[in-house]
From TrEMBL:
Residues 36-90 form the Metalloprotease TldD/E N-terminal domain. GO terms for molecular function: metallopeptidase activity. GO terms for biological process: proteolysis. This is Modulator protein.
Amino acid sequence: MLTPEQAQERAYDLVRRAGAAGADAADAVFAAHGATEVSVRLGKLEDVGRSEGEDLGLRVFVGRRSASVSTSDLSTAAMDALVERAVAMAREAPEDRWAGLAPRERLMHGAPPCLDLADAHLPLPEELRDTAMRAEDAARGVTGVANSEGAGASSSSSVWALATSHGFVGGYATTGHSVSASVIAGEGGAMQRDYAFHSARHRAHLDAPEAIGQLAGERAVARLGAGTMASGTMPVVFDPRVGASLLGHLTGAISGTAITRRSSFLLDALGTQVFAAGVTIRDDPHRPHGLRSRPFDGEGLPVSPVAIVEAGMLETWLLDSASARQLGLEPTGHAARGIAGAPGVSTSNLYMEPGKMPVATLIADIAEGVYVTELIGQGVNPVTGDYSRGAAGFAIRNGELAEPVAGFTIAGHLLAMYRELTPANDLAFRQGVNVPTVRIEGMTVAGG
């Protein structure tokens, strides 16, 4: 694997070539990755996989015309052909008055923050196999588990670099580790499946594989005998592993593209009360060893922790340079860049701050409601905010979790849901987007 410094040189070399070929401006991305994955099933090794790759992406500007190309062929001849093709394409592209690199005066300079995103050593395949075996053994050892879909362990390393023709060069390395298990409880038509997983930048921060396996088994067994929900209007409580999707709908609605295209249910909501007053949502790209931490954004701008929602108030859009120009605003440091194409936007380590109540207190006064652990389907309209998803979980009866339920639908409108949302105090950072358990009043539940 190349070092970040070597990756930076690869990206900047492509930018230099573009300038020599006639581009007025350019930026380039270099990405290299390697990953090893091991899967087991029923106590036997099922698969060992290794993937490696290096890719370069180039975006060039000729006036206000631009084009993007990418390649995994890094030979000198391929680079020359890539640059020539990109410049030729840009000359024929339509003009875009908003296109261009990030403002020069906003570029990040100086040493990037130390985010501790890379392990010094990665495990050997036999170590990954043993980890996966331990996870599956623990899952299969839970009483009521009848079969296994398998367990897996993986490790990866990557390096990413960005260079621009107007003065930015930066790069960083990351590693990733994960363990997962998926098992089946029950038999015949009564079978239920569930899973558990954990991912971390550092292997030392992973949950024990036995804990992951046991959780997968317990979750599957708990779903046995699922009944149906009665229809009605009632509180719905979202488990953290599904509640994070509520923030995904928010970030999509406040992205620069959605706002410039006027295709968002939050189009006129900036500076207004969007959530309940007790809700604050933050984005922290500087979280040490965070799964989505980064020292700079996809255009070379510095990044910093920011409150997207503060005490219920929507404080910012998520803007790259192009959408910021169109709106007459400043980019927010949320640009995200893949190998191909122009930047989009993305959050980093996005989370909802915890509330003050334990989960037991959050549900204690619910006479009839539902605790959702699984969402099914994509019935969310980002333009209107209408929300309808299939779901499974557990009935809430007289302030307690009761029998498992499945085959029902929960529905509402996202803006009304946000304003009726109360967070519990159980926030844990386990994914790129994290929320505590949340309760939403007055949702429509349609039983099967």
